[in-house]
Structures are given as C-alpha cells and as structure tokens.
Amino acid sequence: MALTKKQIKQLRGMANTLKPLINIGKNDVTDALVKQSSETLENRELVKFSVQDGSGLTAKEASENLAGQLGAEVVQTIGNRFTLYRASKRRDIEHIRLVRE
Fold first, then answer.
1. Which pairs count as long-range contacts for 25-34, CB under 8 Å and 24+ apart, including other chains?
2. Residues 80-100: pLDDT tens digits?
3. In the chain, alpha helices (H)
C-alpha cells in the first residue's frame, strides 16, 4: 500500500511529537529487532526508530531494510532517526485515520 503525499504529510505531523521507541545498535537489524518492531507496529501503527552511533547502517539503509521485512511504509528519515507506518490488523486499538486524496 503506497502512501499518498497528503497521507505522508499527515503521518509526518503525527510523528513529530513521538519519541524513538526502538533503537538500532551495533548488531544492526536482527531477527529479534524485526519481531519487536512488528509487534510495536501492530500496537501503535506509527513508530519512530533511532540508529545508534555503533551501528554499521545509516538511518536510510535501516529504514528501507526494516520496511521491506515488515511490509511497512517509510514515512520520514531525518538524521539518525526514521519513522515507519503500517496499518494494524487489531480491532482493540484506535487506528490512525488517513486522509483521502
């Protein structure tokens, strides 16, 4: 599901106030990190990540790698942080209502 420009703008605004929930360190993208990220996306839909100095990946590389493995969309990459979005299948959480074109 590709996001439109308006939807990306909406999600970027929402991500502005978020604190990074998941840190990517020297082990880069591991299976455990992918599992944790998937669970967090399922609970929150919009998650900010931080790439630590010891990592061998840039934020852009890490975001593309994780988004591909998780089936998520990269919303934004700034410096050593990036934000991913994936619609949750859970019914017991409040879903993000994306704008329509």
1. 25/52, 25/54, 25/55, 26/52, 26/54, 26/55, 26/56, 28/55, 28/56, 28/57, 28/62, 29/57, 29/62, 29/65, 29/66, 29/69, 33/66, 34/66, 34/69, 34/70
2. 999 999 999 888 888 899 888
3. 5-15, 31-44, 59-70
pTM here is 0.92
Which domains are assigned to the chain? 5-85 (3.30.110.60)
Q: How far apart are the first and last CA of the chain?
A: 14
- Contact between 17 and 48 under an 8 Å Cβ cutoff? The reply is no
CA distance linking residue 37 with residue 31, whole number of Å: 10
